[in-house]
Amino acid sequence: MSGAGGTADFFYREAQRLGYVARSAFKLIQIQKQHKIITPGAAVLDLGCAPGAWLQAIVPSVACQNLGPLEKGGLVVGVDCKKVKVPSSHCDSRVRTFCADVMMLMKRQARAMSPQERGFSVVLSDMCPAVSGITTKDEAISCELGMRALSLAIGKIKLKEGSDYSATIEKYQSSTEPDPDDNGVLRRGGSLVIKFLENEDVPGFGKFCKERFRKVSLLRPKATRSSSREIYMICEGLR
């Protein structure tokens, strides 16, 4: 329930008080407050959306007005390998969910979920492996999930010869690219958020993303449990 420390207890209690299905809603709320990646009328793809807390944090909430009022439009699509019911609290008719394995999801399938099939303005990935306790295994799966989110967002990844991140990207590229579509689902100027378990390969992802996005930063939200090694890479302004 609480992890270690009073801060964890606070976010757990606040989630219950405000009707969020999980404390993780506060992580996205903090990301949004600091980076304002979700704007009124945005089309948002939430990868690994179970149990639905980020779906709740995207739409208008007590903490931040993200999609704006219904007349502003917008769409939130959650995808997870588990069936996820749209939470009744904080969500509205703009939120929908699909049951699919993100690792096998074709870009054309993801694009078909977007408005007019034009893609999304924001792609979020809160995907994380079921922690096995084997550090190297958990780190590798985390990077594979992150690589898949990156590939879905920006399309086929092409590396610069001799770049100091090539080894990192190549390590995960072949196992996480199930379709040959060159085009990603993230619109030009859009933002991407990826969760990683901190490890030596994360800086390589950061260096690659800095060439494709206007701004790249790392954040460990306050609502993160003290025992967790998760960190979020926030990529703004796809070039």
TrEMBL record:
Family as reported in the entry's similarity comment: Belongs to the class I-like SAM-binding methyltransferase superfamily. RNA methyltransferase RlmE family.
Keywords: Methyltransferase, rRNA processing, S-adenosyl-L-methionine, Transferase
Catalytic residue positions: K195
Ribosomal RNA methyltransferase FtsJ domain span: 20-237
Gene that produces this protein: gb10440
Provenance organism: Eleusine coracana subsp. coracana
Designated name of the protein: rRNA methyltransferase 2, mitochondrial
Residues spanning the signal sequence: none
InterPro entries named among the record's database cross-references: RNA_methyltr_RlmE, RNA_MeTrfase_FtsJ_dom, rRNA-MeTfrase_E, SAM-dependent_MTases_sf
SUPFAM superfamilies the UniProt entry points to: S-adenosyl-L-methionine-dependent methyltransferases
Cited PANTHER family: RIBOSOMAL RNA METHYLTRANSFERASE, RRNA METHYLTRANSFERASE 2, MITOCHONDRIAL
